[in-house]
TrEMBL record:
<dbReference type="GO" id="GO:0006098">
    <property type="term" value="P:pentose-phosphate shunt"/>
</dbReference>
<keyword id="KW-0170">Cobalt</keyword>
<protein>
    <recommendedName>
        <fullName>Ribulose-phosphate 3-epimerase</fullName>
        <ecNumber>5.1.3.1</ecNumber>
    </recommendedName>
</protein>
<feature type="binding site">
    <location>
        <position position="173"/>
    </location>
    <ligand>
        <name>a divalent metal cation</name>
    </ligand>
</feature>
<keyword id="KW-0464">Manganese</keyword>
<comment type="function">
    <text>Catalyzes the reversible epimerization of D-ribulose 5-phosphate to D-xylulose 5-phosphate.</text>
</comment>
<feature type="active site" description="Proton acceptor">
    <location>
        <position position="33"/>
    </location>
</feature>
<feature type="binding site">
    <location>
        <position position="64"/>
    </location>
    <ligand>
        <name>a divalent metal cation</name>
    </ligand>
</feature>
<feature type="binding site">
    <location>
        <position position="31"/>
    </location>
    <ligand>
        <name>a divalent metal cation</name>
    </ligand>
</feature>
<feature type="binding site">
    <location>
        <position position="33"/>
    </location>
    <ligand>
        <name>a divalent metal cation</name>
    </ligand>
</feature>
<feature type="binding site">
    <location>
        <position position="175"/>
    </location>
    <ligand>
        <name>substrate</name>
    </ligand>
</feature>
<keyword id="KW-0119">Carbohydrate metabolism</keyword>
<feature type="active site" description="Proton donor">
    <location>
        <position position="173"/>
    </location>
</feature>
<feature type="binding site">
    <location>
        <position position="6"/>
    </location>
    <ligand>
        <name>substrate</name>
    </ligand>
</feature>
<dbReference type="GO" id="GO:0046872">
    <property type="term" value="F:metal ion binding"/>
</dbReference>
<feature type="binding site">
    <location>
        <begin position="140"/>
        <end position="143"/>
    </location>
    <ligand>
        <name>substrate</name>
    </ligand>
</feature>
<feature type="binding site">
    <location>
        <position position="64"/>
    </location>
    <ligand>
        <name>substrate</name>
    </ligand>
</feature>
């Protein structure tokens, strides 16, 4: 399993040091939450900010685009050094086209659904994607409580992957701590995103280690 600390909960005044610390502590991905104030009621940062961090770390840049019509920003995200670009099913009229756009730029393509969207909405893109992200909170803010009803989606995605020999990783995002993270892993998750749980602790290595079974 992999751990993806979410930069949203890091100290923005010392971002480079925060990133180096979680890399040394054994993180696998750096989860990068881009918010536009339209698709979600919050604004975070964009490609100019994480692009500046790219030369400072070898962590996989796992970009979660919470923006309306993400096709407008996929290219800039790729150019800023993203490795995985994940777009919301709910944010575009053309989810299949955006996935193709991401792949044509040589990046791994992910799709993400809100707690209110069923796995069935993803039928047509599951054969194409490298990652499926299940929101375990409503997107927009760190530090929210895990929504238990999302666990059944993880199990569904795992069963579909086995049945059809799909290749996507299953990632979960929101309200993940040692307890809820374990439930996600038991249900079949491969990647745990955790923001406040990791960055609110002074010992980030202990926090990351506590998420591993
Ligand atoms: O996408 C996100 C919010 O929309 C974040 O990745 C997520 O909320 C992480 O924060 P926390 O672990 O504190 O819930
Ligand atoms: Co996220």
């Amino acid at each position: 399993m992999k751990i993806a600390p979410s930069m949203l909960s890091a100290n923005f005044a010392t971002l480079a040091d925060e990133i180096k610390e979680i890399e040394a502590a054994g993180a696998d991905y750096l989860h990068i939450d881009v918010m536009d104030g339209t698709f979600v009621p919050n604004i975070s940062f964009g490609p100019m900010v994480f692009g500046a961090l790219r030369p400072m770390t070898n962590l996989v840049f796992d970009c979660h685009l919470m923006v309306q019509d993400p096709e407008r920003y996929v290219e800039a995200t790729a150019q800023a050094g993203a490795d995985i670009i994940t777009v919301h099913y709910e944010a575009t009229k053309h989810i299949h086209r955006v996935i193709q756009q991401i792949k044509s730029l040589g990046k791994k393509a992910g799709v993400v659904i809100n707690p209110g969207t069923p796995v069935a909405a993803l039928d047509s893109v599951l054969p194409e994607v490298d990652l499926v992200l299940i929101m375990t909170v409503n997107p927009g803010f760190g530090g929210q409580s895990f929504i238990e009803s999302t666990l059944t989606k993880i199990a569904k995605l795992k069963a579909l992957r086995e049945e059809h020999q799909y290749h996507y990783e299953i990632e979960v995002d929101g309200g993940v701590n040692a307890e809820t993270g374990r439930k996600c892993l038991d249900a079949g998750a491969d990647v745990l995103v955790a923001g406040s749980y990791i960055f609110n602790q002074t010992d980030r290595k202990a926090a990351i280690d506590s998420l591993r079974p």
